[in-house]
């Protein structure tokens, strides 16, 4: 869990992803459309990926990927990101970044 928290707090917007995940792709495209460039960690390409996935679950992610952190705090997965975006509450969170 230490590695996940360290990586999540190194940049303003951090996305834990898997390279073959369509929901991860959708979140990446949303951020791109909003002009935000998150730091992306492809956990399927990391030797510690399985442990990172378990750590994300322990942090409270219903689905471990995609996992979005803003300002070092867990925002959530696709459902949370899209809900915030549709309600107009995502952009204010991203404005600083």
UniProtKB/TrEMBL annotation:
It comes from Hibiscus syriacus. One of its GO terms (cellular component) is cytoplasm. Coiled coil: none annotated. CDD domains: GRX_GRXh_1_2_like (cd03419). It is found in: Cytoplasm. InterPro entries: GlrX-like_pln_2 (IPR011905), Glutaredoxin (IPR002109), Thioredoxin-like_sf (IPR036249). Its main location: cytoplasm. Belongs to the glutaredoxin family. CC-type subfamily. This is Monothiol glutaredoxin-S9. Residues 13-74 form the Glutaredoxin domain. The keyword Transport does not apply. Keywords: Cytoplasm, Redox-active center. NCBIfam families: GlrX-like_plant.
């Amino acid at each position: 869990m230490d590695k996940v928290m360290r990586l999540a707090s190194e940049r303003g917007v951090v996305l834990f992803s898997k390279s073959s995940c369509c929901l991860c792709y959708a979140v990446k495209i949303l951020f791109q459309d909003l002009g935000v460039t998150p730091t992306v960690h492809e956990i399927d390409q990391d030797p510690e990926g399985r442990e990172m996935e378990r750590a994300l679950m322990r942090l409270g992610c219903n689905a471990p990927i995609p996992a979005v952190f803003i300002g070092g705090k867990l925002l959530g997965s696709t459902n949370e990101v899209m809900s915030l975006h549709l309600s107009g509450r995502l952009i204010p969170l991203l404005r600083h970044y």
